[in-house]
Amino acid sequence: MKWENLRRSRNVENRRGQRAPRTRMGLPRAGGRPVAVGGGCGTIAIMLLCIFVFKVNPLQFLGGGVETYDPAPQTQQTTGQASEIQEFAERIKGSCEDVWTQIFREAGAQYRPAKMVSYSGATRMRTGGVADSRMGPFYLPVEETIYLDVDFFRQMQQQMRAGGDFAYAYVISHETAHHVQKLLGTTEEVFNKRGRIPEKEYNRLSVRLELQADFLAGIWAHYANKDMIARTGQSMMEEGDIEEAMRAAKAIGDDALQYKATGRVIEDSFTHGTSEQRLRWFMRGFQSGNLDYGDTFSVPYSQL
Ligand SMILES: [Zn+2]
Fold first, then answer.
1. What distance in angstroms lies between residue 171's CA and the mean position of ligand 1's atoms?
2. What's the predicted TM-score (pTM) here?
3. Which end of the chain is more exposed for a tag (fewer CB within 10 A), N or C?
4. Is residue 6 part of a domain?
C-alpha cells in the first residue's frame, strides 16, 4: 500500500523504549503468566478486555499454554525500522481520523478521535493496570485509547505469516472501528448484556461486534483509497494488499487461533468469528463503502 502520503495523526503518544512499569505484582516478566499483570480488579478488567479485543491468542489468557515473548534487543537497524513503523502507525491513524471525521460530519455528527499509545514490552494504562505486548493490540473503551505494541507487527510477520503493511493497517483500522462503535453506543449495548444472558449468547453478540469492526475497517480502506486517488491520482491500495488482509484474517480468526492452541474448534466459544467471516465483512465494507451494509446484529447468526 502507499501510506507515505497519509496525514500523520497527532493523537499518538510514543512510549516506545520506555521502561516497563512497576506493578503491585512486581515487574511484568516476558514468559510469565499474563493474568498476574495488574492483579486484583485489574486482572478481571484485562481478562474481559482480552476476550473482547483483537488478540494474538485468547487461550493464552485462560490458562492455556503461554508463549514467551522477548522483545528483540534494539540495534541501530531495528531502531530505524522502529521509527518507520511508528510513522506508519501514525499515518494510518491519521487517515482513520480523516475518514471517520468526514463520515460523522456527513451524518451531522462530530467525530472525537481515539488516542493511541504505542509502546514496547509493557506500559501503564491511564485507568490502572498494565498493557502488555502479549495482549496484542487492543482498544480500551473507558479511555478511548488504542494500545499498540508495534512489535506485534513483527510477530504477525514472523509467527503468523501475516505480514505486510496493509495487514498492519487492517489491525489499526479494526481497533479504530471499536472506537467508532463506542461513540455510536454499540459497545455499551453489548457490554451491558454481559452476565445477563447465557455466555453462549453473549459470545455471539461479541462475534457480531467484532465482525462489524472488520466491516468498518473495510469502510476505512474504501474511503482512504478514494481520497488518495482524489489527492494524488494514485491508489493507496496496491496489488497484493487484499491478499495481506486475507492472510491476516486467516491468522487471527477464532477458528485458526483455537485450532492452533488446542487442535480443535468449538464454535460456541468464538468471540471474533471465523477467518472466512472476518474477511467477508471486511470486503463488504471495502467494496461497498456503504455503512447500511454493516448491520451485523440483524443478520441471522448462521448467515453472518
Ligand atoms: Zn476487535
1. 9
2. 0.81
3. C
4. no
